[in-house]
Amino acid sequence: MRITALAGGIGGARFLRGVLAAKPDAEVTVIGNTGDDIWVHGLRVCPDLDTVMYTLGGGISAERGWGREGETFTVKDELADYGVEPTWFGLGDKDIATHLVRTQSMQAGFTLTDITAALCARWQPGVRLIPMTDDRAETNVIVDDPDGAADTAGRPMQIAIHFQEWWIKYRAHIPAHGFVLVGVDKARPAPGVIEAIEQADVVLLPPSNPVVSIGTILQVSGIADALRSTNAPVIGVSPVVGGAPVRGMADACLKAIGLETTALAVAGHYGARSHGGGLIDGWLIDTTDAASVTAIESLGIRCRAVPLMMTDLDATRAMAVHALSLADLT
Ligand code: FO1
């Protein structure tokens, strides 16, 4: 069975562990979000690719959900002592080795696809992990200038800051007026991305952030259309349970694009493939949102309410089994 998943960071990676547990013999391709990627102290950091690689490869910090287990931050502290910004970014000593390999390889002319494959040769995540694009496409967030600059009429100046600054330094607490994927107009899908969607037996949208993770991947030319045209059923898992995101700050992102933080709203945002050019055929929601099943099915999306808390591998495996059964694949 060929399974293709579009994944962001922590939620996506954890769900993928359940997919591998449910279907150990499946060929799984993960199309990773690279909109979060950032240059930090001269190193190229790819948070969502690394989170998938470390989580499935056994190196992830279970406590943080990102970066390495047993990490130290000596270099980060030394850089801070030199007063070098960004001091807010948690650059771990072990993690730096990954960024050094990636940065040196980029300087040698290798593509992010090749580099990701080389890094995964060490970690053996059990999936083929490919970036959504090898080109630059960085999520920036439009906010009121945090330093309070105003225009001549006294209105707050709006500026664009890197997603990581909004996410880490400001904890998404300053309202986002919108998101801009800088470079997306020239970004092409990485080799294998479109084929992985077209040739899959099922395409999964894990419970990643629908705006800045899955939504970012869908902005790369050709990817949303491939979802609309693939013969594979497309099944999503709601990242919102009981009106709140399970993890992270998806509510701040959904609000920025005018969406309510509900499983129904996110389903409607993706839309039904069966009509109106939407992207999904099925949508798993949590039992606490069972009252929304009828409304979601009325959108033309098959829906089932099951426990969506990824408390342990058994729970996550059960979610994956439910997702595959929604696609009539178990
Ligand atoms: N998240 C934080 O909340 N604080 C950090 O200092 C931080 C550092 C960091 C370093 C490498 C990396 O791969 C991820 C890191 N993250 C950190 C998580 C990251 O911001 C998010 O995982 C994604 O970008 C959003 O999904």
Write the layout of secondary structure elements.
Elements (H helix, E strand, L loop, with lengths): L1 E6 L2 H13 L4 E6 L5 E3 L2 E3 L1 H11 L16 H8 L11 H15 L4 H12 L4 E4 L6 E7 L13 E5 H7 L8 E5 L10 H6 L3 E4 L8 H6 L3 H7 L4 E4 L2 E2 L2 E2 L4 H7 L6 H8 L11 E4 L7 H5 L4 E4 L7 H14 L4
Parallel strand pairs: 1-2, 1-9, 2-5, 9-10, 10-13, 13-14
Antiparallel strand pairs: 3-4, 6-7, 6-8, 11-12
Helix pairs in contact: 1-2, 1-13, 2-5, 4-5
State the helical fraction.
25-40%
Strand order of the largest sheet: 5-2-1-9-10-13-14
Distance between the termini: 10 Å
CATH superfamily of the largest domain: CofD-like domains
Strand content: 15-25%
Number of strands: 14
Tally of helical segments:
13
Rg for CA atoms = 19 Å
Structural class: alpha/beta
Bound molecules: ligand FO1
> Describe the biggest sheet?
7 strands, parallel
Question: Please, could you describe this protein's structure?
Answer:
The protein has 13 helices and 14 strands. The chain is an alpha/beta fold. The protein has 3 domains: 96 residues, Helicase, Ruva Protein, domain 3 (Orthogonal Bundle); 42 residues, no CATH class; 134 residues, 3-Layer(aba) Sandwich (Rossmann fold). It has a 7-stranded parallel beta sheet with strand order 5-2-1-9-10-13-14. Strands 7-6-8 form a 3-stranded antiparallel beta sheet. Strands 3-4 form a two-stranded antiparallel ribbon. α1 packs across α13 and α2 packs parallel to α5. The longest helix is centred in the first third of the chain and has 15 residues. The protein is globular, with a radius of gyration of 19 Å. The termini are close together. The mean pLDDT is 96. The site of ligand FO1 has 16 residues, from α2 and α6.
